[in-house]
Design goal:
Blueprint (H helix, E strand, L loop, with lengths): L2 E5 L3 E7 L14 E7 L1 H11 L3 E5 L1 E3 L2 H13 L1 E2 L4 E3 L4 E7 L5 E6 L8 H5 L2 H6 L2 E5 L4 H14 L2 E5 L16 E2 L5 H5 L10 H12 L2 E5 L5 E5 L2 E5 L13 H14 L4 H15 L12 H8 L4
Parallel strand pairs: 1-4, 1-10, 2-8, 4-6, 5-7, 10-11, 11-12, 12-13
Antiparallel strand pairs: 2-3, 8-9, 13-14, 14-15
Helix pairs in contact: 1-8, 8-9
Protein backbone atom coordinates (compact mmCIF):
# COMPACT_ATOMS: atom_id res chain seq x y z
CA UNK A 1 0.00 0.00 0.00
CA UNK A 2 1.40 3.38 -0.98
CA UNK A 3 1.69 6.15 1.61
CA UNK A 4 0.50 9.72 1.08
CA UNK A 5 1.11 12.62 3.48
CA UNK A 6 -1.16 15.66 3.10
CA UNK A 7 -0.59 19.15 4.54
CA UNK A 8 -3.54 21.41 3.88
CA UNK A 9 -6.89 22.69 5.04
CA UNK A 10 -10.11 21.48 6.57
CA UNK A 11 -13.26 23.55 6.58
CA UNK A 12 -16.99 23.24 6.80
CA UNK A 13 -18.53 23.84 3.40
CA UNK A 14 -21.83 25.70 3.55
CA UNK A 15 -23.29 25.30 0.08
CA UNK A 16 -26.18 27.20 -1.46
CA UNK A 17 -27.52 26.09 -4.83
CA UNK A 18 -29.10 29.08 -6.54
CA UNK A 19 -31.03 29.80 -9.74
CA UNK A 20 -28.25 32.32 -10.42
CA UNK A 21 -25.56 34.18 -8.49
CA UNK A 22 -26.68 37.54 -7.07
CA UNK A 23 -25.28 40.83 -8.29
CA UNK A 24 -23.84 43.28 -5.77
CA UNK A 25 -26.53 44.34 -3.30
CA UNK A 26 -29.05 41.87 -4.73
CA UNK A 27 -30.89 39.06 -2.90
CA UNK A 28 -31.74 35.94 -4.89
CA UNK A 29 -34.27 33.55 -3.35
CA UNK A 30 -35.08 29.96 -4.26
CA UNK A 31 -31.79 28.51 -3.03
CA UNK A 32 -31.25 25.05 -1.56
CA UNK A 33 -28.81 24.86 1.38
CA UNK A 34 -26.60 21.91 2.32
CA UNK A 35 -23.70 21.86 4.81
CA UNK A 36 -20.83 19.43 4.52
CA UNK A 37 -17.11 18.83 5.11
CA UNK A 38 -14.58 20.52 2.87
CA UNK A 39 -11.15 22.08 2.72
CA UNK A 40 -8.65 21.11 0.04
CA UNK A 41 -6.32 19.16 2.32
CA UNK A 42 -9.08 17.08 3.86
CA UNK A 43 -10.73 16.45 0.50
CA UNK A 44 -7.45 15.34 -1.02
CA UNK A 45 -6.67 13.10 1.94
CA UNK A 46 -10.06 11.41 1.78
CA UNK A 47 -9.79 11.11 -1.99
CA UNK A 48 -6.41 9.37 -1.69
CA UNK A 49 -7.64 7.04 1.06
CA UNK A 50 -10.63 6.00 -1.05
CA UNK A 51 -8.21 5.08 -3.82
CA UNK A 52 -6.40 2.69 -1.51
CA UNK A 53 -3.54 4.78 -0.10
CA UNK A 54 -2.45 4.92 3.52
CA UNK A 55 -2.95 8.61 4.30
CA UNK A 56 -1.72 10.92 7.07
CA UNK A 57 -3.18 14.43 7.33
CA UNK A 58 -1.93 17.62 8.93
CA UNK A 59 -4.38 20.50 9.25
CA UNK A 60 -5.99 22.60 12.01
CA UNK A 61 -9.56 22.68 13.31
CA UNK A 62 -11.32 24.48 16.14
CA UNK A 63 -12.61 23.04 19.40
CA UNK A 64 -16.14 23.20 18.03
CA UNK A 65 -18.81 21.04 16.43
CA UNK A 66 -17.27 21.45 12.99
CA UNK A 67 -13.89 20.25 14.29
CA UNK A 68 -15.38 17.27 16.10
CA UNK A 69 -17.33 16.32 12.97
CA UNK A 70 -14.08 16.47 10.99
CA UNK A 71 -12.29 14.05 13.30
CA UNK A 72 -15.24 11.64 13.11
CA UNK A 73 -15.16 11.85 9.30
CA UNK A 74 -11.44 11.08 9.12
CA UNK A 75 -11.89 8.05 11.37
CA UNK A 76 -14.69 6.80 9.13
CA UNK A 77 -12.64 7.36 5.96
CA UNK A 78 -9.46 5.79 7.32
CA UNK A 79 -7.38 8.99 7.30
CA UNK A 80 -4.79 9.20 10.09
CA UNK A 81 -5.31 12.54 11.84
CA UNK A 82 -3.20 12.13 14.98
CA UNK A 83 -1.21 15.30 14.25
CA UNK A 84 -4.16 17.56 13.41
CA UNK A 85 -3.90 20.74 15.49
CA UNK A 86 -6.80 21.85 17.72
CA UNK A 87 -6.63 25.62 17.45
CA UNK A 88 -8.07 28.41 19.57
CA UNK A 89 -9.95 29.91 16.60
CA UNK A 90 -13.08 28.37 15.03
CA UNK A 91 -12.83 25.79 12.27
CA UNK A 92 -12.54 27.24 8.79
CA UNK A 93 -15.85 27.88 7.02
CA UNK A 94 -16.34 28.19 3.27
CA UNK A 95 -19.47 29.68 1.72
CA UNK A 96 -20.15 28.15 -1.69
CA UNK A 97 -22.62 29.43 -4.26
CA UNK A 98 -23.42 26.92 -7.02
CA UNK A 99 -25.25 27.88 -10.22
CA UNK A 100 -27.40 25.47 -12.26
CA UNK A 101 -24.52 25.07 -14.73
CA UNK A 102 -22.39 23.62 -11.91
CA UNK A 103 -20.07 26.63 -11.78
CA UNK A 104 -19.27 27.81 -8.26
CA UNK A 105 -18.15 30.86 -6.29
CA UNK A 106 -16.43 30.35 -2.93
CA UNK A 107 -15.59 32.66 0.00
CA UNK A 108 -13.49 31.44 2.94
CA UNK A 109 -13.00 32.46 6.58
CA UNK A 110 -9.72 30.67 7.55
CA UNK A 111 -10.15 30.69 11.35
CA UNK A 112 -8.14 27.80 12.83
CA UNK A 113 -5.98 27.43 9.75
CA UNK A 114 -4.21 30.69 10.57
CA UNK A 115 -2.67 28.85 13.54
CA UNK A 116 -1.11 26.12 11.40
CA UNK A 117 2.57 27.06 11.57
CA UNK A 118 6.04 25.70 10.88
CA UNK A 119 6.21 24.09 14.34
CA UNK A 120 3.10 22.04 13.59
CA UNK A 121 4.69 20.90 10.33
CA UNK A 122 7.88 19.91 12.17
CA UNK A 123 5.82 17.58 14.38
CA UNK A 124 4.59 15.93 11.16
CA UNK A 125 8.06 15.33 9.75
CA UNK A 126 8.13 11.58 10.41
CA UNK A 127 4.92 11.13 8.41
CA UNK A 128 6.34 13.17 5.54
CA UNK A 129 9.56 11.12 5.57
CA UNK A 130 7.64 7.83 5.55
CA UNK A 131 5.39 8.85 2.65
CA UNK A 132 5.85 8.03 -1.02
CA UNK A 133 4.47 11.47 -1.90
CA UNK A 134 3.67 14.70 -0.03
CA UNK A 135 0.66 16.75 -1.15
CA UNK A 136 0.53 20.42 -0.09
CA UNK A 137 -2.21 22.93 -0.88
CA UNK A 138 -2.35 26.65 -0.16
CA UNK A 139 -5.45 27.36 1.95
CA UNK A 140 -2.94 27.47 4.84
CA UNK A 141 -0.34 30.06 5.90
CA UNK A 142 2.69 30.43 3.65
CA UNK A 143 4.97 29.48 6.56
CA UNK A 144 3.31 26.06 6.74
CA UNK A 145 3.48 25.59 2.97
CA UNK A 146 7.19 26.43 2.99
CA UNK A 147 7.95 24.23 6.00
CA UNK A 148 6.13 21.27 4.43
CA UNK A 149 7.94 21.57 1.10
CA UNK A 150 11.30 21.91 2.86
CA UNK A 151 10.54 18.86 5.02
CA UNK A 152 9.64 16.88 1.93
CA UNK A 153 12.85 17.84 0.17
CA UNK A 154 14.97 17.02 3.25
CA UNK A 155 13.32 13.62 3.52
CA UNK A 156 13.64 12.84 -0.19
CA UNK A 157 9.85 12.51 -0.52
CA UNK A 158 8.26 13.49 -3.83
CA UNK A 159 6.48 16.84 -3.40
CA UNK A 160 3.24 17.82 -5.14
CA UNK A 161 1.98 21.38 -4.70
CA UNK A 162 -1.65 22.14 -5.53
CA UNK A 163 -1.36 25.95 -5.61
CA UNK A 164 -4.91 26.84 -4.67
CA UNK A 165 -5.84 29.48 -3.86
CA UNK A 166 -2.99 30.84 -5.97
CA UNK A 167 -0.56 33.51 -4.84
CA UNK A 168 2.99 34.29 -5.98
CA UNK A 169 5.58 31.97 -4.44
CA UNK A 170 8.93 33.04 -2.99
CA UNK A 171 11.81 32.20 -5.31
CA UNK A 172 13.37 29.76 -2.85
CA UNK A 173 10.29 27.51 -2.80
CA UNK A 174 10.16 26.71 -6.52
CA UNK A 175 13.08 24.23 -6.50
CA UNK A 176 11.37 22.29 -3.67
CA UNK A 177 8.40 21.35 -5.91
CA UNK A 178 8.53 18.15 -7.95
CA UNK A 179 5.04 18.54 -9.46
CA UNK A 180 2.85 21.66 -9.46
CA UNK A 181 -0.83 21.46 -10.46
CA UNK A 182 -2.49 24.83 -11.12
CA UNK A 183 -5.60 25.43 -13.17
CA UNK A 184 -5.85 28.01 -15.97
CA UNK A 185 -6.74 30.81 -13.57
CA UNK A 186 -4.04 30.02 -11.03
CA UNK A 187 -1.11 29.65 -13.45
CA UNK A 188 -0.80 33.35 -14.40
CA UNK A 189 -1.04 34.37 -10.73
CA UNK A 190 1.85 32.06 -9.85
CA UNK A 191 3.90 33.55 -12.66
CA UNK A 192 3.09 37.14 -11.63
CA UNK A 193 1.35 37.90 -14.94
CA UNK A 194 -1.26 40.58 -15.43
CA UNK A 195 -4.55 40.18 -17.28
CA UNK A 196 -4.00 40.22 -21.03
CA UNK A 197 -0.56 38.60 -20.74
CA UNK A 198 -1.06 36.88 -24.09
CA UNK A 199 0.52 33.53 -23.20
CA UNK A 200 -1.25 30.34 -24.21
CA UNK A 201 -1.71 27.34 -21.91
CA UNK A 202 1.31 25.56 -23.34
CA UNK A 203 3.65 28.45 -22.62
CA UNK A 204 2.22 28.90 -19.11
CA UNK A 205 2.81 25.21 -18.37
CA UNK A 206 6.37 25.28 -19.73
CA UNK A 207 7.25 28.36 -17.67
CA UNK A 208 5.95 26.74 -14.50
CA UNK A 209 7.91 23.59 -15.28
CA UNK A 210 11.10 25.61 -15.76
CA UNK A 211 10.65 27.30 -12.38
CA UNK A 212 10.27 24.01 -10.52
CA UNK A 213 12.92 22.09 -12.37
CA UNK A 214 10.47 19.21 -12.09
CA UNK A 215 7.08 19.05 -13.80
CA UNK A 216 3.89 21.06 -14.19
CA UNK A 217 0.35 19.82 -14.79
CA UNK A 218 -2.09 22.50 -15.94
CA UNK A 219 -5.70 21.45 -15.42
CA UNK A 220 -8.11 22.83 -18.03
CA UNK A 221 -11.56 21.68 -16.93
CA UNK A 222 -13.48 20.26 -19.87
CA UNK A 223 -10.39 20.59 -22.09
CA UNK A 224 -8.33 18.06 -20.12
CA UNK A 225 -4.81 18.92 -18.97
CA UNK A 226 -1.31 19.77 -20.16
CA UNK A 227 1.81 18.11 -18.74
CA UNK A 228 5.24 19.72 -19.09
CA UNK A 229 8.35 17.82 -18.07
CA UNK A 230 11.89 17.30 -19.34
CA UNK A 231 11.46 19.75 -22.20
CA UNK A 232 8.28 18.12 -23.56
CA UNK A 233 4.63 19.18 -23.32
CA UNK A 234 1.90 16.55 -23.57
CA UNK A 235 -1.82 17.16 -23.97
CA UNK A 236 -4.02 14.95 -21.80
CA UNK A 237 -7.44 14.71 -23.48
CA UNK A 238 -10.54 15.21 -21.33
CA UNK A 239 -12.57 12.30 -20.05
CA UNK A 240 -16.21 13.08 -20.88
CA UNK A 241 -18.53 13.59 -17.93
CA UNK A 242 -22.06 12.24 -18.23
CA UNK A 243 -23.37 15.51 -16.84
CA UNK A 244 -22.00 18.48 -14.88
CA UNK A 245 -23.79 18.84 -11.55
CA UNK A 246 -21.15 20.46 -9.32
CA UNK A 247 -17.53 21.32 -10.15
CA UNK A 248 -16.56 22.14 -6.55
CA UNK A 249 -14.47 19.05 -5.76
CA UNK A 250 -13.09 18.25 -9.20
CA UNK A 251 -9.66 19.75 -8.55
CA UNK A 252 -9.25 17.91 -5.25
CA UNK A 253 -10.32 14.63 -6.83
CA UNK A 254 -7.80 15.20 -9.63
CA UNK A 255 -5.02 15.95 -7.14
CA UNK A 256 -5.76 12.89 -5.00
CA UNK A 257 -5.79 10.53 -7.96
CA UNK A 258 -2.65 12.10 -9.41
CA UNK A 259 -0.81 11.72 -6.09
CA UNK A 260 -1.82 8.08 -5.61
CA UNK A 261 -0.94 7.20 -9.20
CA UNK A 262 2.50 8.82 -8.88
CA UNK A 263 3.06 7.07 -5.54
CA UNK A 264 2.34 3.80 -7.33
CA UNK A 265 5.16 4.58 -9.74
CA UNK A 266 3.09 5.48 -12.79
CA UNK A 267 4.52 7.93 -15.36
CA UNK A 268 3.24 11.48 -14.96
CA UNK A 269 1.27 11.49 -18.21
CA UNK A 270 -0.53 8.26 -17.26
CA UNK A 271 -1.15 9.56 -13.75
CA UNK A 272 -2.63 12.78 -15.19
CA UNK A 273 -4.96 10.78 -17.41
CA UNK A 274 -6.18 8.73 -14.44
CA UNK A 275 -6.61 11.95 -12.44
CA UNK A 276 -8.71 13.42 -15.23
CA UNK A 277 -11.03 10.43 -15.11
CA UNK A 278 -11.41 10.89 -11.34
CA UNK A 279 -12.20 14.58 -11.78
CA UNK A 280 -14.77 13.85 -14.48
CA UNK A 281 -16.53 11.44 -12.12
CA UNK A 282 -16.62 14.03 -9.34
CA UNK A 283 -18.44 16.74 -11.34
CA UNK A 284 -21.39 14.39 -11.90
CA UNK A 285 -22.32 14.26 -8.19
CA UNK A 286 -23.43 17.07 -5.88
CA UNK A 287 -21.16 17.84 -2.93
CA UNK A 288 -17.46 17.12 -2.55
CA UNK A 289 -16.90 14.14 -0.26
CA UNK A 290 -19.85 12.15 -1.69
CA UNK A 291 -18.38 12.68 -5.16
CA UNK A 292 -14.82 11.47 -4.48
CA UNK A 293 -14.46 8.11 -6.26
CA UNK A 294 -13.49 4.84 -4.65
CA UNK A 295 -10.87 2.64 -6.27
CA UNK A 296 -13.54 0.31 -7.65
CA UNK A 297 -15.42 3.23 -9.18
CA UNK A 298 -12.25 4.60 -10.76
CA UNK A 299 -11.29 1.18 -12.11
CA UNK A 300 -14.74 0.82 -13.64
CA UNK A 301 -14.40 4.21 -15.30
CA UNK A 302 -10.94 3.37 -16.61
CA UNK A 303 -12.29 0.13 -18.01
CA UNK A 304 -9.28 -1.78 -16.70
CA UNK A 305 -8.29 -3.85 -13.70
CA UNK A 306 -5.22 -2.50 -11.96
Amino acid sequence: MVKVAVVGSYGAGLTMRLPRSPDAGETVSGGVFSPGPGGKGSNQAIGAARLGAQVSLLTAVGDDDFGRAARALWREEGVAADHVLTAGAPTMVGFILVEPSGENRISIAPGALDELDAAAVESFHAEIAAADILVVSMEIPEAAVAAALRAGRRAGTTTLLNPAPARPLPDDLWPLIDVITPNQTEAPVLLGLQEGHGLDDGELTRRLCALTGGAAVLTRGGEGALVAQAGATTRIPPHPAESVVDTTGAGDSFTAALAVSLAEGRPLTEAAHIAGVAGAHTVTIAGVVPALPTRDQLDDLMGTER
